[in-house]
Amino acid sequence: MAEENKGFFKGLFKKLGIVGAEEFGETTADQELEQQAQQEPSAPEQPPVAAPPTQAQSTQPVATPAPAPEPSAPSPRQVWTEPTAPAPAPVSEPVEQAKPSFFDRLKRSLSKTHETIIGRVDTLLLGKKQIDTDTLEELEEILITADLGVKTTVDLIRTLEQRLKRDELQDGAALKRALKEEIQLRLLEHHAPLVVTDKKPFVIMVIGVNGVGKTTTIGKLAARYTGEGKKVLLAAADTFRAAAAEQLETWAKRVGTDIVRHKEGADPSAVVFDACKAAIARGTDVLIIDTAGRMHTKVNLMEEMKKIRRVLTREIPDGPHETLLVLDAATGQNALSQAKLFKEAADVTGVVLTKLDGSAKGGIVVAVCHEYALPVRFIGVGESVEDLRAFDPVQFVDALFQ
Ligand SMILES: Nc1nc2c(ncn2[C@@H]2O[C@H](COP(=O)(O)OP(=O)(O)OP(=O)(O)O)[C@@H](O)[C@H]2O)c(=O)[nH]1
Known about the structure:
single chain; alpha/beta; Rossmann fold; Four Helix Bundle (Hemerythrin (Met), subunit A); eight-stranded mixed sheet; two-stranded antiparallel ribbon; elongated; binds guanosine-5'-triphosphate; cytoplasm; SR_rcpt_FtsY; GTP-binding; hydrolase
């Protein structure tokens, strides 16, 4: 990128208080992770309740937290509608409220991101008779500040400039259409859903810093695969925090799956070893491994990952079949820094972006996918089981632009 561009973005990041622009020598990914690890999780933890131990537990009974609370519905997007005729008189029988479709829920979840991107694009285009390079420059600023990432934004703007030269952007509507198409193309380029093959067990290792929603995502995945008739086993290899294993155990009970856990502070590799043995012995279809997020440096992270993999591959030579990185979309640029670090340190094969509901930083989905060529496997749009969805780029972009 040209020096003057760097200067512009550096100034812009400063002005907007965005962290994680290591490309500009401001913060390194390691520092980002360290800061993140020292921060409290972005959502409150669950209150503990007493619960009996499960089958494969190797320790005494422990306290387990209550199931995750149901999410409160995000506020619906404000839309102007034509005034209609007065409502008919109320009917006496109770009318059953239709459950909104997932697309409607997705749209509602993305409403703040919609405002941050499309709302500002609409304002920019308001009353514009003609699209020119100045318009595209302003669009560039909107996209960067809406967490689409510098690299992705620059790439998008260059493409739009070429389309402008080809006379394809005659008006605001054409520009919006082109922007939608180009974002969709970039998401589709690296898109690949997670396919659980008939390898027995199919091993999914879940990684990410603490508080991003790893345990919740594992619970939701366990519910999904159990619902498909698969036999699931959870491995509580996050032995760093006692509450992590307890929380996972609560999910195991709720979903009706087995869990392997050790005492707090135990060696995560020992948990993985036991879980692999148990999964093979029990004919498990899907083994999901929770790992600790409190890994301060890239070296630590790599060492921990190497050790877990060494133990795992001794028992299941071609595992893990998926290394799923969980990122909290609400953390915007920090999520992007984490994607960089984990991709370098842990052979990530797919990403889950959680907490898209109520976040204005949903643009990060495009940045993670395009900048790091990582397939987004699932998105989380709430705390309940049905709020983890397989990522569909076309549906996502439709919901964002509508
Ligand atoms: N709104 C919303 N909340 C979520 C979502 N996914 C997870 N959460 C909440 O985020 C909080 C943290 O989730 P956890 O699953 O405990 O995160 P973790 O990464 O396992 O955290 P550690 O156990 O500390 O490593 C919990 O309160 C979850 O209910 C989501 O998609 N939307």
